[in-house]
Design goal:
The chain is of the alpha+beta class and 74 residues long. It is built from 2 helices and 5 strands; from the N terminus they run E-H-E-E-E-H-E.
Length: 74
Amino acid sequence: MTLRQAQVGQTVRVAKLEGAGAVKRRIMDMGITKGESIYIRKVAPLGDPIEITIRGYELSLRKSDSEMILVEPA
C-alpha cells in the first residue's frame, strides 16, 4: 500500500520509494528512506496534505508525494 492509503494513528515502515530524479531525491532528503518508521498524525479535511512524524520531527507531505512512498505495517 502507499503512504496515502495508511490510516491516521497507524505506524508504517517504508518499503520502497517510487519515482525518479529530483522528486525521489527530494523525498529522500526529507529523511524518508527505506526501513524508516512513519507515524501518520493527521490528514487535512480535503486529504491534502498529510502530516507525519518521522525521525522525531513532524513533516507535511503533498498527496502526490505520499503516493510515491510504498509502505508496510510496522
